[in-house]
Write a structure and sequence with these properties.
Organism: Aureimonas frigidaquae
Number of domains: 3
Strand order of the largest sheet: 7-6-10-8-9
Shape: elongated
CATH class of the largest domain: Mainly Alpha
Radius of gyration: 53 Å
CATH architecture of the largest domain: Up-down Bundle
Number of helices: 6
Distance between the termini: 31 Å
Keywords: Coiled coil, Signal
GO molecular function, one term: polysaccharide transmembrane transporter activity
CATH topology of the largest domain: Substrate Binding Domain Of Dnak, Chain:A, Domain 2
Number of strands: 10
Order of helices and strands: HEEEEHEEEHHHHEEE
Helix content: 55-70%
Structural class: alpha+beta
Pfam families: HH_AprE, Poly_export, SLBB
Protein name: Polysaccharide export protein
Amino acid sequence: MRLMIFIISICLSFVSVAARADTYKLQPGDEVEIWVAQDERMNRDAVVSPDGNLSLPLVGQIQAQDQTVDQLEATLTEKLAGFFKGELNLSVMLKPGPQHMPMVYVVGDVDAPGAFPYRPTMTVLHAVTVAGGLYRTPMEARDQDRAVVVEGQIDQSRKNIAELTVRIARINSELAGQEQVILPDDALPELSDAEKVTLLNREKQVLDAHIAEFQAQKRVQQQLNDFGVSGTDAIRRQIESVKNRVALAKERLAATASLVSKGLSHKSAQLELEAEVGELNEQGDQLQSELSALESTSVNERSRIDTYFTTRQSSLLAELHESERQLEAARNGLVEAERVMSIYRNTEMAERRGITAGFTVIRTHDGKVTEAPAEETTLLQPGDLVRVTYQQGGQRSAALADGTQPSGN
């Protein structure tokens, strides 16, 4: 249907051009169609050259500029008549071009002022539309772009508030030794259940990882306690046994030395006992070193684990305080962004209430120029000029509001 209307409009435009052809004077760039019934080789489309001439076989260059189509047809008939027998049947038709189409003109507060092809039943609104619509000032453009940025800040602030609220719930659960993230029922009412579940699952994964690490450290601590007690006790028992053996060996050595001094025993027996005492002393020293190393290792590992537990608690408290600070900042940012956005909305509404577009149609008819206010539905005529201006207060003239034409028809 739209295609049919467009074709009809084009045809009507061509009819309008044809109706003007009897008075239109040819200009350089115009194209005419020449048809000769007696010789189809003479049929052609010819363009008026920049110097105003047409070039045709048999007649050569002829002046076409400032002639009407009828005058050019008569000139060609006269010049070609001698080349054909009988009455020459020749016709010339102006081929419509953009320069021949009826135009309307749009100026003022539109995006692309200029001249545009006229179409039957064309209204002021149609003309403004083909001129790109009403012009948006740079200040309005900046305001609208800024509003888009502020809307993004509002969305980001709301997202941050939701994430921080669930994170704080996870930290409190972790500090309380709980294995689930507990979120109050009235928290985050603006979120759907699915969105809450997504955030809770994310923090639950963090909580599970922290719990697993905590339990692993607890197992290490218990193993240290168990091994430390049993290990040190065993070494101490060995040390005590070696001490007893050293004491017995020394008693035997003293007795043997007395016998050797009296000549009742060999010197070699005394030397063997002295070597045995030395070996036992070395065993005792080695066991004492092992005991010291084990006790030092246990102390260091216990200190590390104690530091982990203390640091973990401090880290959780620090994370809690930082998250609470960020949550407060996000809430303040949301309040400020919503305040700014409300200003833009109120300003936009005020501008819409206070500023409207006014239209004026300027028409030339029979050498007279008339100017009258118009409405969007006002019908235009070929050659009309539409002036668009913003006006304050929404006051628009009632003239032409019913679609009638300006005076001068």
